[in-house]
Design brief:
Layout (H helix, E strand, L loop, with lengths): L10 H21 L5 H8 L3 H8 L2 H25 L4 H18 L1 H7 L7 H23 L9 H18 L6 H13 L11 H12 L8
């Protein structure tokens, strides 16, 4: 027998659903994806039981709220990078745009630094931006403007470190990251390249530790 359509929500239940989604988007932007769900419920003006009744838990709430917002912002960052006239400028603007998103939105900071990997849809959105960035990296290396020994893992470490920097300086020096990314990009240009003290396997081997160093998970 065909599945029966889910019953329509009552008007008050629909209102609670929308209030919870709006509150979750706000709290996640401010505090990241590990923010207390009790605060989400409080801002929505409902009980924590209502939140769990509507969404089941953190992962379901994140999947209901964050992918659309993250997809739009990451997509715009990639479009801005892609509009630049040279392979170097496309790569540099990609790095700058991703770091700017980390500084502006704590939820996106978690996504870009892969501090929260439990939500499948978010993981897919993040993977798309990584593939795009890896392509820009290869194009800039192919035309000789980007040092040839940079790897996609190295780029991830840039985002991971920027995640920590933006969290630490958000209240006192919110634009500090811009200075350090400018230093980094100058050092990545081919004319500035010098021999590296270690190969890429050193960075790759460290990734599990880095990925485990994100904010504490809450259920």
């Amino acid at each position: 027998m065909p599945d029966r359509p889910a019953p329509a929500l009552r008007a008050d239940a629909r209102r609670n659903l929308e209030k919870l989604k709006a509150a979750a988007a706000e709290v996640f932007r401010e505090q990241g994806l590990s923010a207390p769900l009790e605060e989400v419920a409080q801002r929505a003006g409902v009980s924590i039981g209502t939140l769990y009744n509507r969404f089941g838990g953190r992962q379901e709430l994140i999947d209901a709220v964050v992918p659309e917002l993250a997809g739009a912002k990451l997509g715009e960052a990639m479009r801005r990078a892609g509009a630049q006239p040279t392979p170097w400028s496309r790569f540099a603007v990609y790095i700058e745009e991703m770091c700017a998103l980390q500084a502006a939105d704590t939820a996106l900071n978690d996504i870009i630094a892969r501090s929260y990997q439990d939500a499948a849809e978010l993981t897919a959105i993040c993977a798309e931006s990584v593939v795009y960035g890896t392509r820009l990296l290869a194009e800039a290396q192919a035309d000789g403007s980007l040092r040839p020994d940079l790897t996609a893992d190295d780029v991830f470490v840039v985002f991971w470190l920027n995640s920590r920097l933006t969290r630490t300086t958000a209240a006192t020096a919110p634009d500090a990251w811009r200075r350090h990314i400018a230093f980094l990009l100058d050092g990545l240009r081919t004319p500035a390249a010098t021999s590296l003290p270690a190969g890429p396997e050193t960075v790759t081997a460290s990734l599990p530790t880095l990925l485990g160093g994100g904010p504490p998970r809450r259920r």
